[in-house]
Amino acid sequence: MDKEKIYQELIPQIKALINGESDFIANLGNIAASIHFAFNFHWTGFYLVKNNELVLGPFQGPMACTRIGLGKGVCGTAWKKKAPQLVNDVNQFEGHIACSPHSKSEIVIPLISEGEIWGVFDIDSSFYNNFDSTDLHYLTLICTLFKNT
Ligand code: SME
To answer: Sheet holding 85-87: strands in order across?
Structure first.
């Protein structure tokens, strides 16, 4: 199945999941799980802004670093610039934070509600060049479906 089709099937599932539950941490956990296992990514999860740091939130995958500063790594860059980051080869990204040697490419989507950035959604792949404009499109869309309340 191509990735577009997988995303199109995921979106109603994620909507149904969110509609049935009001706790946003519970929802982030299930959103991470549904996307992670649909694509068999290496790591899929959330970092949440807390006291001017990104702190590890719900995720699927191996252990990850718990705190990321503004402008640090791919996640901190997405936070600072309030812009998605699509990295084809993490070794080429200056300052990339290597939580796992298996991570080869990465995409990070900022989470913004009412103009305020409250976290990032980070996905790592164990393959180079795994992410493209289709992932960017659908992941950005998915990130508009939920808020931090
Ligand atoms: N690689 C990220 C750190 C988080 S992990 O990938 C889970 C970064 O450079 O910000």
So the answer is: 67-68, 53-60, 43-50, 116-125, 105-113, 85-87
> Where does ligand 1 bind, in terms of residues with CB under 6 Å?
43, 64-65, 68, 73-76, 96-97, 99, 103, 106, 122, 124
Return the CATH number at 108.
3.30.450.40
Split into its structural domains, the chain has a count of 1
Domain around 51: 3-143
Q: Give the pTM.
A: 0.97
Pocket test for ligand 1, best of 97, 105, 125 (most atoms within 8 A of CB): 97
**Measured between alpha carbons, how far is 128 from 70 in angstroms, rounded to an integer?**
25
130 occurs within a structural domain: yes
Q: Which atom, in ligand 1's list, is nearest to the CA of 61? A: 7
Structure confidence by residue, pLDDT tens digits, 43-88: 999 999 999 999 999 999 999 999 999 999 999 999 999 999 999 9
Say what the pLDDT of residue 1 is: 77
